[in-house]
Amino acid sequence: DTGVSQDPRHKITKRGQNVTFRCDPISEHNRLYWYRQTLGQGPEFLTYFQNEAQLEKSRLLSDRFSAERPKGSFSTLEIQRTEQGDSAMYLCASSLAGTGGFAGANVLTFGAGSRLTVL
Amino acid sequence: KQEVTQIPAALSVPEGENLVLNCSFTDSAIYNLQWFRQDPGKGLTSLLLIQSSQREQTSGRLNASLDKSSGRSTLYIAASQPGDSATYLCAVVGWFGNEKLTFGTGTRLTIIP
């Protein structure tokens, strides 16, 4: 297993276009997270999945953003009608949650990120 | 709402020196605290995780401490090397966070050869 993979690593698009990012988590991990990081800031939580269920979405995730994890494996994050303010690094992370539910002891493994530049 | 602060925002030290990075958080009801490293344009690498019941964790030249009651953590780096140059982020998980991390803004560390 090579860890968490994200594709593409860098996307440049014009304002108003749609973009989609893909994340492949570590294969046995059942939880998958999306974070957004703007320049000079720490990452901010966007949403997370347990298996295929999207369990929480941040208020940062406007209706132009949609995330899916259709088979509980890879996930996609789509941004419609991009705006310059969407320019950021989009980070994916995964972890293995225990059967007890809350497993805050687990370390999240992050991917290298997908950098979006909106012109 | 949990807020995490890291001061200073940037730090430069000569190679070989020991150094301390600081992290503070406003809500002491945390499940754990993690320190991450981020190289320019790259993702995050987990360095150390401290459970709320623990006081410190060590890995090689790194030692992280946690004082939950005062809302503070420190990351101590011994005998710094140029390869330690990176941004260091701390993040906390609240008791009801489902592993959702709240990050600080990071300290950009430069080790001068």
Which percent bin holds the helix content of chain A?
Answer: under 10%
Using only CA atoms, what is the Rg of chain B? 13 Å
H/E topology pattern of chain B: EEEEEEEEEEE
Largest interface: A-B, 31 and 27 residues
Mean pLDDT rating of chain B: 93
Topology of chain A as a string of helices (H) and strands (E): EEEEEEEEEEE
Shape of chain A: globular
Radius of gyration of chain A: 14 Å
Helix count of chain A equals 0
Termini of chain A, distance in Å?
36 Å
Helix content of chain B: under 10%
What are the segments of chain B in which pLDDT stays under 50 over at least 5 consecutive residues? Answer: none
Secondary structure category of chain B: mainly beta
Average pLDDT number of chain A: 90
What is the global morphology of chain B?
globular
Give the N-to-C terminal Cα separation of chain B.
41 Å
Largest sheet of chain B: 6 strands, mixed
Tell me the number of helical segments of chain B per DSSP (H or I, 4 or more residues long): 0
- The count of β-strands of chain B is 11
What is the SS-derived class of chain A?
A: mainly beta
Explain the overall architecture:
The complex is a heterodimer of chains A (119) and B (113). In chain A, the strands form two sheets. In chain A, strands 2, 4, 5, 6, 9, 10 and 11 form a seven-stranded mixed sheet that branches. In chain A, strands 1-3-8-7 form a four-stranded antiparallel sheet, with no helix packed on it. In chain A, a hairpin with a 6-residue loop joins β7 (65-68) and β8. Chain A has strands at residues 5-7, 10-13, 19-24, 31-37, 44-50, 53-57, 65-68, 75-79, 88-95, 109-110, 114-118. Chain A has no helices and eleven strands. In chain A, 0% of the residues lie in helices and 47% in strands. Chain B is an all-beta fold. In chain B, 0% of the residues lie in helices and 59% in strands. Chain B has strands at residues 4-7, 10-14, 19-25, 30-38, 44-51, 56-59, 62-67, 72-77, 86-94, 101-103, 107-112. The interface between A and B is medium-sized, with 31 and 27 residues.
